Every structure is written in C-alpha cells, then in structure tokens.
Amino acid sequence: MAKLSKFSQIAVASGLGLVGGLLLGSSGRNLALSIGLSSGGALFGGGLVAFVYDTKLGRVRLDLNSKLYELQNENIKLKALLQTSEKLVSDLQTARETALQTIFALKSELATLKLDLQGANGTVKNLTSERDRLLIKIGELEGEVKILTDLCGEKEAELQEFQTTFSTRLDNELTQEFAAKKSQLIKDEVGKEFDLTSQAFSLLEEMQSMMKEVYDLHQMQRHTLLSTHSQYQSHHQGAIAKKDEAIEALIDLKDSLELRVRILEQTIADGLTTPEYKDFGVDLNGKATNLITEWVWNHLEIPLKGLGFSEGEELVTVGFEYPKSLQGEAIAQRIVESKLEICRVVGIFEISSCFHDPTTDRIILKYRRERPKPLNDETIYKLGLVPASLFGDEIFKATDHKSKGKPTLRIMSATGGGKGIATKNIVAYFLGMPDWEIWLSDPLDGSEEDYWNCPKVAKSPSEAGQAYAQFIKLHKDRQAKRPAITDRFTLGIFDEFDKQHDDDDKKSATEIMTAIRHTKQRQILIGQSGEVGANHWTWDAMKNCSMLFIEDAIGTALKHDKDLGWSLSKKRELLKQYEKFSEWARSKNETLNLPGENAHRIALLVVGDRCTFLEIPSAHKGILRDGAGVIRSSFDATPALPNISIPQYVPQVKPVSHPEIECPHCSSINFRRHSSVKKPGCHRYSCNDCGKTFVARDNRSN
C-alpha cells in the first residue's frame, strides 16, 4: 500500500507538471517548447514528491524502530519480572509450607510444654504441701522444745529447793536423834552406876564387862552416825550428779532439736547439708574428686558434691555443687588458701586454679596430677617464647612507632625480680645503635642492687626530679624548634619512678607518653609492680605505653585482664603459655643450679593488643661504655661521639657478612656448637661459661 501510494503521488505530480508545461508551451504556440516544459515539469514534480515522501518515510521508520526497541526492552523486563514473580510465588509457597510445619511443630511443643507445666504445677503443689507440713512440724518441734525448756527450769528449781531443804532437814534429824540417844545412854549409864554402887564390890567384874559393852555400843553408834553422814553425802552428791545429768540431757535434747530444725531449714533452702560422694569406680581422677570433697568437709566444714571431671591435655577440671546459702567466691578463695595441704593429702602435684563460675553456678577446680615434664629449648621457642638473643630487638620494636610500637616503656617487677638486669641489657643494646644518647637516672645510687657500672645523670631523688625536668624541657624545645641540649636520638631511663618521683612528674610523663615519638625521644619508666592504681597511675594511661611485666608482675597483669581489655579466652591462653614457660625456666634453673643473676627469667611484653613472652638475658656483667651510642653523665656538657664504632652487645644493628658471635646471656665468646635448628643459616650453641644455649648465625657459613 505504501509503495502504491508513493507511485500514485508521483504520477499525480508528474501529470500536474505535464499539464502545467503544456499550458505554458501553448501560450507561445511552440510545440517543442511545450513538450519540453511539460516533461520537465513532470520530472520536477515527481522528484520533489519522491524526496518529500522518502524523508517522511525515513522519519516514520526511525520512530517505529525506536518504538520497537523500547517494546523489546519492555518485553525483556516483563519476562524478567515474570520469572521473578514465579520465583517469588515458589518461595512464598515454600515459606508457607515451612510456616505450616513450624506452626505444627510449635503446636506439638506447646502441647508438650503444657503437659510439662501441668506436671511442674503438680510438683510445685506437692513441694508446697511438703513445705507446709515441714513448717507445721517445725512449729510442733519448737513447741516441744519450749515445753521441755520450761520443764527443765521447773525441775532445776525443784532440785535446788530439795537440795536446800534436804540438807537442813537431815542435819536437824541427825542432831535430834543424836541428842535422844545421848540422853538415853546417860540415863542407862546413871541407872547402871547406881546398881553398880550398891553392888560395887561384889559385881566389879560385871561392871567392867558392862563398861566394855557400853564402850562398844558407843563406838557402834559413832560408826552408825558416821556411816549415816557418809550415806547422806553420797546421796547428796548422787542427787546433784543426777540433776546435772538431767540438765545435760535436756540441753543435748534441745541442741539436737535445734540442729534438726537448722538441718530442715537448710534442706529446704538449698538441699545440701552433708558432702555427697559419687561412685567413679577405680578412676584416679574420680578418687581425687572425692578426696577433695572429704578434705573440704573435714577441715572447712563445707559440704560439696563432686559432679564430675574432664581430663585435658595437662589439667583435670572438676565441678562441685555447693550450698546456696554460702558464697561461691568465698568457698573458692578458702580452697585456694589451703591448696598446698589439699595437694599433699590428695596426692596431686598442684591446684592451678579454683574459682566460682557464675554461668553454671558451680565451683570449678583445676589441678595437675603430676609434675609436667619440662620442654626442651627448641620446643619452648616454637611455642612462642622469644629467645634472649632477640630480647633487644623486641624492646626496640616495642618502642618504635614505625613498627606500631609506643615510645614509652613501663618495666614492672617485684624487688629482685630482674628489672635491673633487663634494663642494663637494653642499655647495652642501644649503645650499639648509632646516633643515640642515653640518660640514666638512678635515685638509689649506691644500693646493694646497684651494679650498673656506667655514668648517670642523676644519683639521688632530687637529681632524679631535675633530670626528668630536663627530659621534659628537651621535648618542648624540640617541639618549638628551639636549640636543645642535644640533637641525637634520646633514650631516658628513670629508675624507681613510682616511688621516687612525685605526682607532677607522673602527670608530665602521662602527657608526653606518645608525643615524644615526634621529638626523637623514648623513655623507660621502671616501677616496683604492676599494681597501677596503688602507684597513682591509671589503666587508661598505661594503654598509651608498652609494658614489660617480669616474673611475679605477670600474675598481676593477668589479674587485671579486664583493665587491659583482654577477653577471657585471651587471658586463659596467656595463662596457659605462662605456666609452660615459667615451668621450663624453673626446671632449667634447678637443673643447672644457676646463680640469681644468670637465672632464666620470663617477661610479658604488652604493646596494645600484642602480647609476647620474652626470655630475659642473663646479667650484663661488663662495664657499659660509649659505643655507636653514648651515655650522658651530666647536663653540663654534651658527650662526644667516638670516631670509631666499638662492637657492642647486639650484633644485629649493622649486619655484616661474618658477624662476631657471643653468648647473649653473659657476653662470653667461649662456646661450642650444640645442635642444628630449622632456621636457615643458623645453629644452636652452648655457652661454656653460663651453661645456657642460644641461637645465632652458623659460624661455618660462608
């Protein structure tokens, strides 16, 4: 139709052009011109119409193609929506079926719960009735106790009255009887005397006989009186004893009834009044559980019930039920206080921990049956203990902010715990670092524990305060870009900072703990223990430091796990590692019989969330001298750096192809090859002087 319409329009236009040409040509009456004009008009009209038609047809075609493309896109979207709707219908059907199944299951569970609830209601009613019956029985027993108490009082009063009246009456009766018998005897004697007077001479022998009889009778009466008095005394004492026995019996009965009442009350309260022992058969851990229960009852008078145990790789964990009228934390604390005696009686090596678990409301006790076998050096280092040869490297990284460390280090341990040994090794390490200057402040200079053998900027408490003021001034001068006392990297070591520095110094130390990383400074603050609050610090301030806990201070750190932001699992993992490492160190010290300065010591290095156990090197017994770094002796003059580099304690500062090997524990070069290690290019050596082993580069490698 489109082509036909196009042809028809062209034909009409050509016809009109032809007619127009004829009209124009006929006016001149020239046939050739008329034909030419008519032909030209026809061609022009047809071409014009064809052009206009093609143009409009192209536009229409483009519009139709655009519409068709949009319809195809819509069709694709509709198909996708149709597929989505079908999937949704399928999912809805599946969800409906699942919901119906869940509803059915919930209905079944609800029916079961209703039955259980009905049974529980019945049990509660029975318990309630039993409680009411026991309360009634307790009331009756209290009434009986009251009646018996009143009866005891009455009997005691009657016995007291009888005791008083019986003694008086017996004395009166005996006196009257004695007087009557005496009077009768006198009358008899007088009558006999009159008879004897008239017959004195004739009856002398009879008189003598009668006098003997009178004497015998008198002695018999005297004996009778004495016997009667003795019987009275015996009867009196027997009556008193019977009275006392009756009173004691009543008191025992009263105590027994009161004990029975308390037992009934405790039974109602928590159901555990005496220890309960479980039959574990021949299991040794079960036997130990029952022995612990028995010891606690016999010595602490606390009834426990061993619920069971689980045997781990190293420890045995036991759960105990306890009376709810007592506090679980208090029971656990009393067991911990008596753990040595319990271990001796039960026959176990040690009780590692005992605590109250609030989740299960049980006493949890963990013990080790036998002394653990000490691990060898290679195994202990694989478990995560950093060897003494790398101690200085770890401390340097812990105070280097480029290694995600913190420029302030807190060293904490008890007196004699090894903080001085650790610090002197740190000083020796930094003396091997080029362009470092060390300030050492020792307010207790000259004490028995002083074996630094090096220059110091402070040797008294007052000088220590002035030295720290200089350290603060150095920080401020460098911040303000003013000329400072030194341009070198500066390590300030301040011993006894907790006890010998005032709160103003501690406040200043807190303010610059992290800021000194921008002024080429680091500081080491040495304290007595890990008890932060007692030394006027806060745990928030401690989180801005690296912390080195040595020996006993590690236990303090574990006690403050929440203040350090540790999870319970992390605390338990650290405790497990510490037990292994400390047992290894203790065993090594006992086996080698090492002196205190050479003893193996364990430290815990905490830098933010990172926790690393370190082996403390042995005491550095040499004199500390300037090397690549220098030690400042005063603030009057700046120490000059030496022109040559002196080999120092740590050879890792400037790696060379053949470094000199020395023992990191005692700095001795007298050692022998011990065994191979898995680390490439390294070997384990044994020191001939201190007896310790260490890992270093293989001295045979090229």
Q: Give the domain tally.
A: 4
Tally the beta strands: 15
Number of helices: 15
Mind summarizing the main beta sheet? Answer: 8 strands, mixed
Percentage of residues in DSSP E strands = 5-15%
Low-confidence stretches: 641-659
Can you lay out the helices and strands and say which pair or pack?
Layout: H1 2-28, H2 31-198, H3 204-269, H4 284-300, E1 305-311, E2 316-321, H5 328-337, H6 339-346, E3 350-357, E4 362-368, H7 377-382, H8 391-398, E5 408-412, H9 419-431, E6 436-441, H10 461-479, E7 489-494, H11 497-500, H12 503-512, E8 521-527, H13 539-542, E9 546-550, H14 552-559, H15 568-592, E10 601-607, E11 610-616, E12 630-631, E13 671-676, E14 682-687, E15 693-697
Parallel strand pairs: 5-8, 5-9, 6-7, 6-12, 7-8
Antiparallel strand pairs: 1-2, 2-4, 3-4, 9-10, 10-11, 13-14, 14-15
Give an overview in words.
This protein is of the alpha/beta class. It folds into 4 domains: 2-193, no CATH class; 284-368, 2-Layer Sandwich (Threonyl-tRNA Synthetase, Chain A, domain 2), CATH 3.30.980; 377-654, Rossmann fold, CATH 3.40.50; 655-702, no CATH class. It contains 15 helices and 15 strands. The strands form 3 sheets. It has an 8-stranded mixed β-sheet with strand order 11-10-9-5-8-7-6-12, sandwiched between helices. A 4-stranded antiparallel β-sheet has the order 1-2-4-3, covered by helices on one side. A 3-stranded antiparallel β-sheet has the order 13-14-15, with no helix packed on it. Helix 1 packs antiparallel against helix 2 (31-198), helix 8 packs across helix 9 and helix 10 (461-479) packs parallel to helix 12. It is flat.
